[in-house]
Write a structure and sequence with these properties.
With about 120 residues, the chain is mainly alpha-helical. It folds into 2 domains: about 50 residues, no CATH class; about 50 residues. The protein contains 4 helices and 2 strands. The longest helix is centred in the middle third of the chain and has 21 residues. The chain is elongated and about 55 Å long. The chain starts with 10 loop residues before the first helix and ends with a strand. Bound molecules: pyridoxal-5'-phosphate (PLP). Pyridoxal-5'-phosphate binds next to helix 3.
């Protein structure tokens, strides 16, 4: 919901305000600002796709941080690819956000979690 009118702000800051609660994630947009925020959000996905030279904007997923990204990879790619007795190697230097998701998916898939020290 747009609570403040900040027309003198640069468009990136205005957008920051607009998107607070207006991006349509999976259902129909209900109002103008929601549609506008969704269009800008999707346009930024295309920009990132081109910048990274990704094959499709569908390959670009925005996440909140490293923890969410690693969990997503472990829960999707890891779940799809890991087989019983496969090994996942993790160094002893990893942040716990890069340990726990792999421990969990290894347990689920019967893979072997190896912590290299
Ligand atoms: C090496 C490393 N990995 C992952 C994280 C977690 O990152 P995020 O807060 O983006 O989930 C941190 C946070 O400090 C970190 O230092």
């Amino acid at each position: 919901m747009l609570r403040r009118h900040k027309s003198r702000l640069p468009s990136s800051k205005r957008f920051g305000i607009i998107i607070q609660q207006n991006i349509r994630m999976c259902t129909a947009a209900f109002h103008y600002l929601s549609e506008l925020a969704t269009q800008k959000y999707e346009a930024s996905r295309v920009k990132v796709q081109k910048y990274l030279n990704a094959g499709s904007e569908r390959e670009i997923i925005f996440v909140r941080g490293a923890t969410e990204a690693i969990n997503l990879v472990a829960a999707t790619y890891g779940k799809m690819k890991l087989k019983p007795s496969d090994e996942v190697l993790i160094t002893g230097l990893e942040h716990h956000s890069n340990i726990v998701p792999w421990q969990m998916i290894c347990e689920e898939k019967g893979a072997i979690f190896v912590l290299c020290r």
